[in-house]
Amino acid sequence: xxxxxxxxxxxxxGSGVPPAPIARPxxxxxxxxxxxxxxxxQAMLDRAAHLPGTHTLSVADARARYDALVKVLPPAxxxxxxxxxxxxxxxxxxxxxxxxxEGTGPFPVVVFFHGSGFVLCSLDTxxxxxxxxxxxxxxxxxxxxxxxxPEHRFPAAPQDCLMATRWxxxxxxxxxxxxxxxxxxxxxxxxxLAAVTALRIRDEGGPALVGQxxxxxxxxxxxxxxxxxxxNAVGYGLTRATMEWFCGTxxxxxxxxxxxxxxxxxxxxxxxxxxxxxxxxxxxxxxxxCAMPSGCSRRMCPRSCRAGTG
Length: 310
What we know:
Layout: E1 22-25, E2 31-34, H1 39-47, H2 59-68, E3 81-89, E4 92-100, E5 107-113, H3 127-137, E6 140-144, H4 156-170, E7 177-187, H5 189-203, E8 211-215, H6 227-231, H7 240-249, H8 261-264, H9 273-276, E9 282-284, E10 291-293, H10 302-306
Parallel strand pairs: 5-6, 5-7, 7-8
Antiparallel strand pairs: 1-2, 3-4, 4-6, 9-10
Helix pairs in contact: 4-5
């Protein structure tokens, strides 16, 4: 039976009529229909084909390249007002950019978290996306400038996103918006943060959400064993090598303090829990007083244990 695949990175079309499907065999030897890349997207990929891959750059150079892309993006939808607020975040000042649509409120609220591997991009790189979301949905969009890796370890980003969402709910009336219609949204890594924020809000006492808008969310653990890593390894902008670069750039999270370890357990992805499970019940390192996994064969700093030498 033929299946039309969406969300694979190739099913992108912006014209009124989607291109005709192209049939090819799938991994299980059955046939499925895949959509070719839209000509406009393909033209963008062709123009960028000569650039060095993100995985070959330093974090600073990769950020500079992504910031430069803002200059070549097409005009975005008009909005009534754009302003920035700085709130007290979990790790210091946290900047929010608010997009107000044309018309009369109260408006629904979309709290938006940008993507790019938890490492790259900013409020500016996703300014056009937020304007289009604001104008198209008729909603107040709150874009969150959460802390990035590798400078800031997990759980800095999800903590910022949760704080921003709660701030948006608490100040909705002040902003002229509807606190009963709040959605979290994000693309790629931002989709991950939106899903995490929704789960935490569900489990940690609100505020109530009415939905999630997850745009090609990175909700699975980085793994080269996934078929899509081979099927879409090159040719579609985001390559397998760049995904591996993102995963390698994010530092291994330090184990949380012993007194709060059980409280943090639910923040760890189930895919990552096997390597964290030994940290749930720990002892103290004899030399530095650090947390050690129970049963560790060497009485040394946990850095050595995380490197596989303990």
